[in-house]
Amino acid sequence: MTVRAVEQQTALGSRRTHRRASRFRGASINLLYLPALVLFAVFTVYPLISGVALSFTDWDGYSPQRAWVAAENYVRLLTDDTFRSVLGNTFIYGIGSTAIQQVIGLGLALALDRRLRGRNVARAIIYLPVLVSPIVMGTFYYLLFQYDNGALNDLVVALGGQRQAWLSTAAGGITTIVLVNSVQFVGTSMIIYLAGLQAIAPEYTEAAMLDGANAWQRFWSVTLPLLQPAFATSVILNLIGGLKLFDVIQVLTGGGPGTSTSSVSTLIGTTYFANQAAGYSAAMGVALFAIIAVLTVIANAALNRRRLEQQ
Amino acid sequence: MKSRSRSATAALTAGVTALMLSSCAGGASDSGKVTLEFQTAQAADSPLLAVLTEITEQFESENPGVDIDLKTGGNDYESQIKVRLAARNPPDIWATHGWSLLRYGQFLAPLQDEPWAEHFNPALAPVMKNDDGEFFALPVDTAVSGLIVNETVLERAGLSADDITDWDSFLAAAEAVAATGAVPLTLAGSKDGSAGNVVDWLAPGAFDEDQLASFEKGEFDADGYEKILAVLETFRSKGWINPDYSSATGDDMARSLAQDRAAFALSSNVLVTQALSYAPGARLAFVPVPAMNGTESYLIGGENTAFGAARDGDHLDEAKEYLAYLAQPENDAALAQATGSIPGLTNVEADLGVLQPSYEKWVEPGTVPLRPFFDRAYLPNGMWNTVVTTADSVIAGQSSPADSTKKVADDFATLYKEAE
Description:
The complex is a heterodimer of chains A (about 300) and B (about 425). With about 300 residues, chain A is mostly helical.
């Protein structure tokens, strides 16, 4: 064997050893992810699978006995008037909150993207409610809207009006819930749109200005199309949040009167615990999961298609 | 560089996970004491919890080896218990709130051999004892309730509690009260469940014995049920229910009685105790519930405050010892007084304060029939929420009595089938 051949073999061996060591190191690094994967499996994957399995049983939610009922719970869902009306409320919460948050969030982002004194303070104040628990936020608004001792009614009376039961009708309750949820999470939309605005290169608007475009034309034809990625992110996040709405409803109206302001999430809770129909409740949960997944995919596809068309 | 970054990310992930897991780890008592967890189902400001806390502190000082961890619970108390039962991790002791036999019996230790068991109030036997004579909770009190009346408000309307003798006189009284500007019937919205109480209180006077028996056979009497909800619609349309109904809580009901703003309430007597905490001089009493169908007026009763011990609890002996301590006459008397109800043990006498004359007049002679809570006796387990939400819809004008009755009938059919 020549010296060169020995050198080549040594180099080859060294590379193999290095590759083996590298592979071993990679494997050991991957091992560090294991605890997180286990947590994900235990707290997300397992509940999802067991929830689906539960939806095919008649379990009451606490006793050791449960029986397989095949698709009975899903058949019941299709004929359940309460579920149908509550699903309608859920779409109102999802779509209503999303629409309001896009309009106000974008408006705030446009306003606070300019060089204004105190804009950082304003941004922080608008975003602050996002950090507050929805239960706390709901309680705050409950104190505002309640009939006796409610701040809003005190104001109405001080102005010579009559006290109003703001939350005693389906329309009043749903409107209030949509507004409270929108106000709380409008900061999220604002931040997403601010990030989107700051990612737009100033050359585009400068070029439009040179072409003689006015402010509205620059916004409509340049800024808005370039905000498509931010728009898609904001819409999908808000839509998912709105469709899953639970806490604010629970605190403000408890889903009442009757079930007229309930969402699917609150109905799942009462069906599981109060009606002791854990199997049926799980079927509702699976249905909600499927609805959110389908809507998200549709919204995402539609928004992406529009973006591609604009490109 | 890339590899270093990947290592750092992985290490960070592992570190955060470890931190999360360590945060999840529970603290263990190193004092060597036995700690009994007791889910009381009482709100932090309830009069019963105050008395229970005092008695528990005495028990702990007499039994230095045992600590009792009194847990408060609000409207979600039942959900908490169900989750604990589903996880096979129930507290050592919990309040059974009317369900010691039918719902929780399989999880609770039988207590009929305890030293205090010979004093078990026989009036509770139909709802708390099984066919083998076993019972599963210490009955702290016996619920005996009627129509709660505010005598001051009635007096302003030119009436007295004695004038409420039948259904027509009740409606006439409500009309007279409304004319004075006071609220005839105080109720709290869906979050409280008081709308369901109306059904429980009025149902025994809406159905005859045969109709009630038909419920037990799985036949729902929709006509009778609709009549009960029609009463709520009448009260709503006439403005006889507090206008803040939807946002009102049980506490608001107590305040309206305490402040002489409402004449009647259909509730357990703990509401009176709560009202007296705001206005000790309030003139409150109860009278038998007038029957809607014109038959004899009646009282509502059954299991009320009762505490059971986990059958498979690690500290069952200590839990039974604690229950025996609560069953001591002076302790049970104090607890029963706090709920405004007669004791659940026959060797105990309680001073029921403002309600004492009502008990002496209506309960002690034993002439007024005592009817069970309708939902517990005649509806399948799990119907309460439907009863509340459907009645709530009618009171809020969101649903007609017929539509709400249909919903109750549907759920009755489903849950009855599941119970079968």
